[in-house]
Q: What sequence folds into this?
């Protein structure tokens, strides 16, 4: 096997050195009846050229060269070339969690930079090194709010990504976390009145909203924070489109911000790996899950970085840890860090502005033959339309032009009828948007 | 014996007289990216907008953001240099042996990276129609089939994002199953040798953790488990081979004990690198287990992630698997099935860390049945070779037959004031990444060494030589060891001070 | 002043007390790949043969080879480690400033690498039909147009593989042209400040080299050229800006002198980074010149190559260009024209280093007219900033106005026994690649410094600081400098011994 | 411009430091009439995303996903992934010629390994660090033979790659090197008798042949060496298909071996950059052109490598140098080194054998409906067929199946009629070869 750095004579010499006569002697500790006496039934060993060919065929089965007008929590943005050039350096790609700081300063400093940028963008004071994704970050935020407030349960906006709400339900169910939902009003925003009433009825730990929400509508975070804080709960805001932070004020009124950083230079990759983000106020840091890099100094007074506050974590605190998370999404967070560095202070805003303009155009052109739902509240780069035709058919039609159309919403929000969720980013050409508008007609 | 001040006076040459694997080389300094920023530098450029500009202030009103604070402004070459310089401060598998016990730091083949970046793989949207997702679904299906075969289980979910997430998913399956039987039960048994995620996960699901003590050989004691087992216990979480690298030979008996009282056997599959192609958990009584694709199946650790933690289980647990599940239609095409009324629900959005599935499958295809078996054999051979080589130099706390890793203790060295972490740090000077020191807790001052199959005899010999030299240094000049590392661009960090007054982000001074 | 033994006793800390840009870090050792080989290891695997096997002995008979001698046998991970480790011993632009005068070590953008690897670019066969080569031909055509515009010339060939090859091609054009006029002539004038390839090339073509002395300012002296010029002289090869980084302000006059006697003006375009977008050789009288895409147009040096040396020229030389030439058909499609009866013929197989064309064009597209001009301005600004910063510390042999590079001499330091090469080596300890020391020959002990546009002010300040510190060290403890480098994994090699009894390949011991 | 690490305020501060008021002051040394007062007429500055898109369009115009049955000096072989993973490391990609040995040991050791492997494969004693390509290496070999022998001129086989002969003609013409050609006989090999006669007539410095020759036929090197040496000339053998050395005896009887190493993991790239190779006997080393890496030791006795014997080179010897070559093909040589390391002692032979088998099959199937020329001498993986139809038409037909057929030879060897040169490598599938056989019919 070409990955194995041994010849058979190496193996024999080593067996002799170990003092056994055959390799099977080293497996004699496994009771005989459980020792596998046959080949595994997996595909035969392939040449590298065959592997490349096999996946290239799968890649083509998947269709290539598509234009996406589909978002819903996973967005197609241009990925600067430097990202892959850098994350594929073996020193990043093939290194472990930076527990041994003296030979992991590269990873540690990059995490520290990631944490800083996330703070800058979200308006929070501390951010961790990453979570699995936005969905698990959201439930971790709820659990963290429980620890902070000593209360139980959460109210979750119905305009939060449906799959995130499913994940919350899964976690909540088995932990006895009571979770209720609050609906949206005609403009697509959270029904703040209903939220206020619900908060009055139950002393929940947390209110969780998403902004821009699943419909692309930007929530009135300040108003929601107001009623939430009055009720003594924490407000957690989830952001699934990180680019929006380039042109939309951060939810600075929130207590916890969770985010999906996929838009920051991470490939769509059929849903993962992505990069969950969690940020909060400094005073809550000891209730926070996940790894944290902190500044430190060596004996000679040289600045460096270490993983810190590890007493929150499972490898120290075991069942009393803030979370069971261990392996996180480090390399993906590095991609995001590089992306944020490329665009930076000015570029991120300009990028977000292009997204805004593209989506405004797309909504306007689509709006000529379909109803654009949720008027009256600002949007970022997604919008919902209601069409005469079944959205599934529209999708099929567009696919012939290599355009992936909007997501039919009937499954998640049957009350919206023939609704579908569309997205436009800087990668969506005017021609594609015009074709989509045509197909909707 | 030299004194502290002698160490200071020792020249680099003296200090490194026995170091064969490494030297020192100039290494670039690099500030934080924020410290390199200045207004007007830019690494970005957008294509001209092909639709009308919008007035963002008019569209967004008060929520418009106009200032991105301290986000950096730098040029492209500065970015390339910044991250290239940073990278050179890291150790990596690509540079040498990474003998971290329990972490299975094996070779990460570059073909895996290449195929994961194919257009149709990298740019597939999770919600794109199934008609144009058949390639992705096929990857998931074939990987699932392979992992089921490798583990000897009946079914699988690929959704969990890492090992701990897999534990969570697996225990949820247990809980959902028991609940469907009428009683989710209250407790989970966890050996004192377990990894920290095991108890942490059990707690996350609302189970009480009952620790079971290992016996004097560091092994599970069927009698103790028998004694602990009752109708309150949902499951036991067993790592096999266990965290001292020894196969739990009573595993089938333990399964029987659990099953007899309606409990289930969960296996932490972190150590599957000792078993693939040689023994299958499904065959020795395991009901549910997770795999770490970022360990056994070679997906890169990336400085801490991403991982992937598929959960394989027996038929009885199948109805409870997270949604969706990939199923084959009569015409051979694949579809995602969401209609699973007994499912525990989702454990994350979309379908899991798909990019890792591609890499893991590429690894399996590169190996085939023969390669997978040979890999396991080499991994076990390597660990035993190290054990042999270090026997007599370090104390072997438990002497059971080692499989893929061997755990020594610092008992001898501790007497001279040298701890496992000191030895670990000195190993850095010798050009190696240290072994695992943080656990297993049942070995005081553990040196947990897992070479994996990826090390050549030459590299192992250098490692053994380095470890022997360090043992000698501990006898002759312990300060050289307790003061280590000496050859790195920073020495040991003051972690206590860092935790006392944490600085977790840069702020402009 | 410290003595030799003091240097030896100096601790690393003392030695590096002023070094701000670098420290030392552990660095992996690595043997030659042959020393890691052992029979039975393999990194290769072929797909199963889909046609009948052949009996190679029967097919080939006595010429069949059965043994490949000492070719290595290693596994894939050993290859990754081998070359990764080796790479970490190199300095590179990606790590820091590379102030090699005349070499234009600028940023090599990664997008260039990406587009050169697109399937249709990387996998185009030079003889595939033109109908499926339009993309490649378009790249050649647009690059040609851009380079013609940038140089102000009339036409171009992309065929030469590097600068020296371009010189060869350019001088051949001169020769063919003169021959067509009846007399190829005998001599080429070359300033004493020229790069070694200039005289070497002239000799390769069978021209006698007549050296012309620079004047006391290091500049070409029109009077001297006038005196040397006669009907035996085919051309003069001028580098402009010249190798001391100064624009030859009499260049037009020199062109006139050459033209008046039927000779031509060849320009070595190695220093075009000082001119792009600011002045065009075609406008100031140059008849023929080469460009180095691996200098001015950012294609990577790759440890010594590949390069690309297009030759641009005036209309009179066009008939003689190497075959083939890309031409546009009336329908807009492109074709390769081989029918050029006066052509000098081919200078290499196929069409040149096409992969470099892709990269250079990507660079031009990334810059546009504004970016190209700004690039030149920054390059010149950087050189002048260094000149200012080091003035007073090092001797400026010639004081003409610097453009993209500045050349100091070691005059002051040489008095204390410290030569340019010593200063260069000490710069390594400071985390920089040295400047060029080998030429220009008209500056004794030259320190030829070309920062390019790719250096930030911060990096330049570090460089100036390092150079000043070294100047101080020369005064205070010259041995620190003459003994340098101290911080590298090897110190100065005994080059004399290496050349006396050359060992140019590994042999089994 | 996004590559430039300066803000405008940096520029102003630096100008002030330099003591000038505007950047144009620094260009005042250029006479005013030659200062360009307008923008260059080149395409406008593009975003990275646009650059990628532009080249992707050109790439598609070039056709993608082809199968090649075309060789003629440039061959399509599978390129192991590790090659690009390694050569794209900035430390290799963006480093200069390794003149400063202390910080260039990586490049130097790799060159030393390259030189060693080339010696092993070619049967020569020394090899240099690379030449531009095989064509320029061939003429350099002739010039070197002149220096060694003190004689002038060469006899070149007509079965040497036609474009290489053109390059030789170009160089030779202006240097007064008399070059004559020797023809091939019916089996495609050099007419040794004619060669012997030609040698008797003129005291040339060198005989240059290619093996496998342009027709894919393997020359009888021993016989040719015999007559050449008897006449006091040197024999230079050019190899355009490096893979052939895996299964064909090296031309150990030659005095100089030149080679194109493109087949060793180098992309076709429409003809370059490739990697010329030159190897010879130790006694001729001081007449050799190009860079050489040699073993050396530092003061502490540590082994390392340096560029050596530089007194042959232009930067020392100027017009007396052995060649004007300076920049060579270093990174491409590194690709070749990695390729040779991947396949190694056993793999190279097996790879060559697959090529042999593929071409045997292709020749056999094609031979059913066309005449396979040059029978009676062994071939490697190319062969010439004479068809009824015009080879250009056959090519067009095959192109529709994404197969690039053989090279029509009429341009180079009109006497061969409707001949074309075909190639099969390990990347040519049986299906493609069957399709080709079909098209020939
Ligand atoms: C034995 C064991 N169990 C569980 C885990 C947790 O896996 P992950 O880090 O993928 O969440 C680890 C990881 O180190 C482990 O070693
Ligand atoms: C002034 C000058 N001319 C010519 C050359 C030769 O160019 P190349 O190395 O591309 O052959 C160089 C290269 O360093 C140079 O600096």
A:
């Amino acid at each position: 096997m070409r990955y194995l750095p041994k010849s058979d004579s190496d193996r024999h010499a080593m067996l002799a050195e170990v003092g056994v006569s055959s390799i099977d002697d080293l497996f004699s500790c496994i009771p005989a009846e459980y020792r596998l006496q046959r080949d595994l039934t997996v595909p035969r060993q392939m040449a590298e050229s065959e592997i490349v060919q096999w996946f290239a065929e799968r890649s083509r089965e998947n269709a290539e060269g598509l234009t996406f007008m589909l978002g819903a929590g996973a967005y197609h943005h241009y990925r600067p070339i430097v990202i892959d050039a850098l994350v594929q350096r073996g020193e990043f790609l093939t290194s472990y969690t930076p527990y041994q700081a003296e030979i992991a300063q590269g990873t540690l400093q990059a995490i520290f930079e990631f944490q800083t940028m996330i703070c800058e963008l979200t308006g929070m004071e501390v951010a961790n090194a990453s979570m699995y994704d936005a969905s698990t970050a959201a439930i971790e935020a709820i659990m963290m709010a429980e620890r902070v407030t000593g209360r139980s349960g959460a109210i979750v906006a119905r305009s939060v990504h449906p799959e995130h709400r499913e994940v919350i339900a899964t976690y909540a169910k088995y932990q006895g976390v009571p979770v209720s939902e609050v609906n949206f009003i005609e403009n697509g925003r959270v029904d703040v009145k209903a939220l206020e009433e619900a908060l009055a009825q139950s002393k929940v730990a947390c209110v969780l909203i998403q902004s821009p929400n699943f419909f692309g509508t930007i929530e009135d975070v300040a108003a929601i924070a107001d009623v939430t804080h009055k009720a003594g709960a924490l407000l957690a805001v989830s952001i699934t489109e990180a680019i929006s932070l380039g042109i939309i004020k951060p939810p600075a009124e929130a207590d916890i911000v969770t985010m999906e950083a996929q838009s920051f230079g991470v490939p769509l990759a059929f849903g993962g790996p992505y990069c969950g983000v969690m940020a909060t106020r400094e005073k809550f840091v000891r209730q926070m899950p996940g790894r944290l890099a902190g500044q430190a100094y060596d004996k000679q007074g040289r600045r460096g970085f270490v993983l810190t506050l590890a007493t929150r974590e499972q490898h120290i605190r075991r069942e009393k840890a803030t979370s069971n998370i261990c392996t996180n999404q480090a390399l993906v967070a590095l991609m995001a860090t590089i992306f944020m560095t490329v665009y930076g202070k000015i570029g991120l805003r300009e990028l977000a502005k292009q997204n805004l303009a593209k989506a405004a155009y797309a909504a306007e052109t689509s709006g000529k033959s379909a109803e654009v739902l949720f008027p009256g509240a600002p949007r970022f780069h997604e919008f919902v339309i209601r069409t005469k035709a079944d959205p599934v058919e529209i999708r099929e039609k567009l696919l012939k032009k290599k355009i992936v159309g909007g997501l039919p919403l009937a499954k998640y929000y049957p009350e919206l009828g023939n609704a579908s969720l569309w997205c436009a980013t800087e990668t969506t050409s005017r021609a594609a948007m015009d074709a989509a508008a045509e197909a909707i007609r | 014996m030299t004194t502290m001040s002698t160490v200071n006076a020792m020249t680099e040459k003296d200090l490194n007289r026995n170091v064969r694997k490494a030297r020192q080389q100039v290494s670039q300094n690099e500030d934080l990216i924020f410290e390199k920023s200045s207004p007007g530098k830019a690494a970005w450029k957008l294509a001209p907008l092909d639709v009308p500009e919008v007035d963002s202030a008019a569209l967004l009103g008060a929520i418009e953001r106009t200032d991105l604070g301290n986000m950096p402004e730098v040029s492209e070459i500065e970015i390339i240099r910044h991250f290239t310089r940073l990278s050179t401060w890291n150790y990596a598998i690509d540079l040498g042996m990474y003998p971290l016990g329990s972490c299975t730091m094996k070779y990460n083949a570059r073909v895996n990276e290449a195929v994961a970046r194919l257009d149709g793989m990298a740019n597939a949207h999770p919600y794109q129609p199934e008609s144009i997702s058949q390639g992705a679904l096929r990857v998931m299906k074939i990987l699932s089939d392979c992992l089921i075969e490798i583990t000897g289980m009946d079914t699988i979910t690929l959704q969990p994002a890492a090992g701990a997430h897999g534990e969570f998913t697996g225990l949820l399956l247990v809980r959902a199953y028991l609940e469907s039987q009428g009683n989710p039960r209250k407790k989970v048994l966890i050996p004192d040798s377990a990894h920290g995620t095991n108890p942490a996960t059990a707690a996350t699901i609302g189970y009480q953790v009952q620790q079971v003590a290992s016996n004097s050989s560091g092994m599970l004691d069927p009698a103790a488990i028998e004694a602990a087992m009752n109708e309150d216990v949902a499951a036991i979480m067993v790592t096999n081979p266990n965290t001292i690298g020894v196969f739990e030979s009573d595993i089938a008996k333990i399964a029987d004990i659990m099953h007899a009282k309606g409990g289930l056997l969960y296996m932490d599959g972190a150590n599957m690198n000792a078993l693939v192609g040689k023994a299958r958990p499904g065959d020795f009584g395991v009901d549910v287990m997770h795999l770490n694709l970022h360990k056994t199946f070679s997906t890169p650790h990336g400085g801490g992630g991403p991982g992937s933690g598929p959960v394989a289980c027996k038929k009885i647990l199948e109805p409870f698997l997270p949604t969706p599940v990939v199923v084959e239609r009569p015409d051979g095409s694949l579809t995602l099935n969401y209609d699973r009324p007994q499912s525990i629900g989702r454990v994350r959005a979309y379908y899991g860390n798909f990019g890792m599935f591609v890499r893991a499958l590429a690894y399996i295809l590169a190996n085939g049945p023969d390669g997978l078996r040979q890999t396991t054999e080499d991994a076990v051979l390597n660990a035993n070779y190290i054990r042999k080589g270090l026997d007599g130099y370090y104390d072997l706390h438990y002497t059971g037959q080692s499989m893929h890793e061997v755990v020594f203790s610092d008992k001898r060295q501790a007497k001279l004031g040298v701890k496992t972490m000191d030895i670990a740090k000195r190993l850095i000077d010798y050009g190696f990444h240290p072994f695992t020191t943080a656990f297993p807790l049942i070995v005081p001052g553990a040196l947990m060494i897992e070479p994996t199959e990826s090390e050549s005899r030459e590299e192992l010999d250098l490692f053994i030589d380095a470890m022997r030299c360090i043992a000698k240094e501990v006898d002759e000049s312990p300060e050289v060891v307790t003061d280590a590392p000496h050859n790195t661009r920073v020495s040991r960090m003051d972690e206590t001070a860092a935790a006392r007054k944490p600085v977790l982000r840069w702020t402009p001074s």
User: Anything to note?
Assistant: Residues C 102-103, 162-164, 195, 197, 239, 243, 268, 270, 292, 307, 309; D 326-327 surround pyridoxal-5'-phosphate (ligand 2) (CB under 6 Å). Chain B has a mean pLDDT of 96.
